[in-house]
Structures are given as structure tokens and as C-alpha cells.
Amino acid sequence: RSHTLAVLPGDGVGPEVTRAALTVLDAAQERFGFSIERTEVPLGADHYLSTGELLPNDTVTALAHHDAILFGAIGSPRVAPGILERGIILALRGAMRQAINLRPVRLYPGVPTPISGLTPDRCDLVIVRENTEGAYVAQGSTVHRGTPAQVAVQESVNTWYAVERAVDFAYRLASVRRKRLTLCHKTNVLVEAGKLWTAVMESVGERYPDVETDYVHVDAMCMHLPVSPERFDVVVTDNLFGDIVTDLGAVLQGGLGVAASGNLNIDGTGTSMFEPIHGSAPDIAGRGWANPAGACLSLSLLLGHLGEGEAAAAVEAATAAVLAGMPAMAGKGMGASTSELGERIARAVTTG
Amino acid sequence: RSHTLAVLPGDGVGPEVTRAALTVLDAAQERFGFSIERTEVPLGADHYLSTGELLPNDTVTALAHHDAILFGAIGSPRVAPGILERGIILALRGAMRQAINLRPVRLYPGVPTPISGLTPDRCDLVIVRENTEGAYVAQGSTVHRGTPAQVAVQESVNTWYAVERAVDFAYRLASVRRKRLTLCHKTNVLVEAGKLWTAVMESVGERYPDVETDYVHVDAMCMHLPVSPERFDVVVTDNLFGDIVTDLGAVLQGGLGVAASGNLNIDGTGTSMFEPIHGSAPDIAGRGWANPAGACLSLSLLLGHLGEGEAAAAVEAATAAVLAGMPAMAGKGMGASTSELGERIARAVTTG
Ligand SMILES: CC(C)[C@H](C(=O)O)[C@@H](O)C(=O)O
Ligand SMILES: CC(C)[C@H](C(=O)O)[C@@H](O)C(=O)O
């Protein structure tokens, strides 16, 4: 088996964690006998500052010809906030039609969680975030800027098309897991969008009679998720609420250092992208203080997506094994550098 | 000193916790020598189902003539979700021009928090939520309902007028606390609304040179708030983000049973309303299993608002003292019924 991979290390700690993940990928290829042709793509602050380009058309075309994208992190204090996020991350999600943002929330044994008494058996859920629309569609409009009469309007656009594909994906996932799907929204206030999501849940649900469903408001979700994550198997939600509750999910897992995500194209019209959910953390870049687990668990999702299921499982297990021995999940206290940890995970993949 | 109070017990556990709070109010009046004339107003599911009325104009007029409103909770499985919330709670916030939703997030000593290692000295912040606009303005619009072409649009409207009054309130509060104000938003995605909030923060900040400010994205807030609440003194945010992060704040405090809120009119054009943040909890209504602390701490906020500062402090201290001795924060395990707990808090107010 052979695959093509575009690697976007990005800024700050992005290149460090990506390098660690690629070491792990080497080990997985070796052990499971597949090949991956890698192309490194220089997107991010440096590229933007030296060329003025965020996401050139040529790059989009090139990425579209790869089987998957491994993404590090972008963002730099040298670029105004929002520019790189919108111009690269959100632009890629759109250009590659990455309909789904997939966020497993899993507490691995031995990982310190800030939630007291939380155990791994009680924390194994997946959040399915609609990844293309909602409040993320547009820049909105402003009138009377700079005066006391200023008004800024933001729109959230929700289509049956995109909501259905997210909800169908979530049902399908639930049907091969514990068969429970929770819609998270704010239907009592966002009435029209809420009706759309509710109608789609019911309509798609007819195709999945064995999946039980329920509904939780996004505010209530922030109360339930930390204390009763076992209530949830698969949670489906819109783009903005997904952004918020997945970061809360990462807290349960032991923080940003551990959390992985996939931006999935599910209709063959683009390339899926996998990224740790942490940012570029410019304050600690270059010191070897970034936890490579998020990048390695994202690599595991990537391998699963490429059909390399055994390798995916091995990378996840190896990462979990190394996490279990770490004294802290980020920073100086990790007890080993980013690259050393990458090598440990790689060795664990090799020895199985 | 004499004041007028409208009491809206509402549905489910609302009347139980309100009764407990009124017992505490009796004790406070007795000890601190002020009088409060109380008018009970029957709003909620029963009233709606028997009369078809949500919030009649006469009621609005009557409420406007009171000095404050003490609210229990509304909501019932007999009424479709959203009807009572929008028709009563949100309608009251609008009619009474309750510009600010004030949510202290304070961990009282002895209260079990699900965040491991969190101590009361590290958890004392106030969230100031804009309470009248943003995503809460309108019902949105839908086209092609019931077809695969359906599109639902929701708007968020943000005015300099309302954002400034919330931000100014927050600065003023910060200036008499630890002098730190954090804006919580999602400026990298909600660009126009984000620019408005940022511009208002800067503009109003000129009047409060001694208040330090910073900015945290709402998703990052959900990561920081549980593990580093000591980072925050006053947090100001929009209506929707406020709805979400205040419920997360309640988790830190030991859950819904303990959390209080005020909906403040700050320009003399309406009446402020104080409510525990828990809902009507119909599943446990009538059993004495609801924690009256949220209602009593809301009463404390109310007394402060009426200028009864000593009474406010005494009610808060009494509630904290009783909380410290409770084996659990809600349900059967509280060790005493709602009304017994109310009496204990009242006695603690009396004895000081
Ligand atoms: C960087 C930002 C635009 C992005 C988002 O809001 O989706 C990030 O928070 C995420 O969750 O991937
Ligand atoms: C009941 C609901 C409309 C309300 C809101 O969303 O504001 C509630 O969640 C709150 O926070 O007071």
C-alpha cells in the first residue's frame, strides 16, 4: 500500500510536534509495511510575511492531490490575530470541503485530568462538529463605525445540506459505537437554526433506528460534560458550539497537549486534514516543551482515514503508553523533550 | 428603610427555593431593621396553561413599579421548550431593560468542587454578560423549510450602545475589585462583532486607566476557566458566550445549586431581577431536594442592589456557613430539605 501525505508543519511548536509525529510515522511504516510519500508545504507566518501569501491557489491544487494532510499549528505574534486562522485554517477547511471536525475526547490511563475522580472508563466520547458553516460563514457587516451609533451584525447560516451530512456522519459513528447520539445546540434561543438541526436529527434518525438520541443545550453541556462525560457517546453540534465544547473536552483529557482532531472530507471532493488542537504556542517554541501526543494521536486518526487501521491502533496505543509515564502533560515538567517523546512513541510502535 | 419586592416563584422547584429565600429575608429584615413589601406574581407554566398568558402588559407595568424582582425558576414538561424561556425570562430582560447579567463565580469554603485541587482563594471572579442583544435578538429566518434546500439564518446584532453599557459596568466593577478585566469573545471568527467589542473596550478603558485588560477567545476560556480561575477577576462577554461560560463557572462553584445571578437594570428605566441559575428541575420538584443556596445568594445580590449592604453580606455569609456543612450540593444527599436549609440560613442570619 502506498499513500501520499502533505505535511504542513506551520509555526511555533507546529514543526516540533510534526517532526515527532513523522518519526512515529516512520516506525509505523516500517512495522506495517506501507509507504507514504511526503511533501512538505510551507504555510504559516514565515511564508505569509515573506511572500504575502496565505493559501495560494497552487497550494490548494497540490493539496487536493494528496491522500491526507498532517497539520502542525499556525499563528504568530508577528501577524495580526485572525489573519492566519481565517486565511489558512478556515480557508483550508472550506477549500478541501472538510465537512466534519472530529474530536475524540478520551482520557488515557495515567493521564492527570483536572476533573476530580474522573476515570478513563467514564471518558470516551466523540464530538462531531459541523465544520463549514454556521457562524463561521461570513465577516458580517458594520454601520456607523467609530460612532456611538455603531452596529455590527454577524450571521449564522445553516443549511440542510451541511447539517445533514454532519448529522448523518454522527449517526453512522454512533451506530458502530455505543449507539447514543446527543444533539448539542441552543434551540430555545436560536429558534430557526434549532428547528433545522432538530428536523435533520429526526429525518436522518429514521435511517438509524438502533441509535438512541437526546438533546442538551450548549450551556447545560458545559455543566454536564466535565462532571458526567459518561452520559455521552457521540455528540453532534454546530461549528461555533463545537469550537467551544471541544476545547472543554480537551480539559477532561488532560489538556491541549493530548487532544487530536480530524477535519474530514467525506465525499471525495477534497483532502482530509489532521491536527493537534493546540496552537502554535510561540512562548514555548524551540524549547522542546510541547507535548507531541496531540500530533501523534492526530496521526493515528490520519492512518485510520487512509485505511491503515492496524497502524492507527498501534500509534494510539504507543502514544497512550508513553503518556502514562509522563509526569506532566506539557512544558518543562514533561520529563523529556518533544523529540525524545516522539522517539519513545516510535519505539513503542516498533516493539508493539 | 422600606422597599417593594415582586416575587415570581415560577415552576417546579422555583416556589420551594423562593420560599426558603423569603424565610431568610424575614430574618434579614428583622435583624437589620428595614421593611420589604412583597407582591407575589404568578408567572410560569400553570399561569400560561390556564390563561394563555406569558407576560401580560399589566404585569410588566406592575413589575416596573417595584424596587426589585426575586425570581425562582420557570419551565415545565407540559409546555414546549422555548415558549416560557422566551416569553417570560427573555421578555422580562427586555421589558425591564436588564442590560447586565451578573454572575459571581465564587467557590465557598467547604463546598465540594469537581475541579481537583481548586481552593476558594483561587476562585473568585465575576462574569458580566451583555443581557439584551447579540444572538438573542431575533428568531432568524428560514427558507425552503422541510426540503433538502432548507436554509436557516440567525443574526447576532451588536450595538455600541449596549456593548458600551456592559463594558463600562464591567470596568467599574473591576476598578473596585482586583482591577483586571478580561474580554471574552471570538474576534478571530466573528470579525465585525469582535471589532465592535474591541473598540468599545479601548474607548471605555480610557476612563479606567488603573484597570488592566486582556483578551481570551471563548474556546480558550473553556480551557482556562476550569484550571486557572485565578487568572480572572472580571470577565465581560456577549449574551451567547456569557450564557455558556457562566454555566461552566457554576461547575467550579460546586454546581447549579450554589450559583446566583442578577439581571440588572442600570439606568433607572426598569426593575432588576435576581434568580438562581438553576432551572425548574421538574423531576425533583416537591421533594425538598433543591438547594436553596442559589436563591439565597441571589437574594444577597438583590439586597446589595437595594442598598442594604449589611444585610446582603450577612445573607451571603450565612449561606456560605450552611453550605460548608452540607454533605452534598443537591438532591437527597443534602442531608436536610430545602425548607430546613432555608431555616438554617435564616438562623445564621439572625445570630450573625
Ligand atoms: C483557529 C480558529 C479559527 C479555530 C476555530 O475557531 O475553528 C480553532 O479554534 C479550532 O477549533 O480549530
Ligand atoms: C432559559 C434561557 C433562555 C436562559 C438564557 O439562555 O439566557 C438561561 O440559560 C440563562 O442563562 O438564564
How does this model look, in words?
2 copies of one chain form a homodimer. By secondary structure, chain A is an alpha/beta fold. In chain A, helix 5 crosses helix 6 (191-205). In chain A, helix 1 (14-32) links the parallel strand 1 and strand 2 (35-40). Chain A has 2 domains: 1-98 and 259-352, 3-Layer(aba) Sandwich (Isopropylmalate Dehydrogenase); 114-143 and 152-252, Isopropylmalate Dehydrogenase (3-Layer(aba) Sandwich), CATH 3.40.718.10. In chain A, the strands form 2 sheets. Chain A has a 10-stranded mixed sheet with strand order 2-1-3-12-11-4-5-10-8-9, sandwiched between helices. In chain A, strands 6-7 form a two-stranded antiparallel sheet. Chain A has helices spanning 14-32, 45-51, 57-64, 83-95, 160-175, 191-205, 218-227, 239-252, 293-305, 309-324, 338-351, and strands at residues 2-10, 35-40, 68-73, 100-106, 124-130, 141-143, 151-159, 180-185, 212-217, 234-237, 260-264, 273-276. The relative contact order of chain A is 0.18. Helices cover 41% and strands 20% of the residues of chain A. The interface between A and B is large, with 65 and 65 residues. One 3-isopropylmalic acid sits between chains B (85, 89-90, 243) and A (188-189, 219).
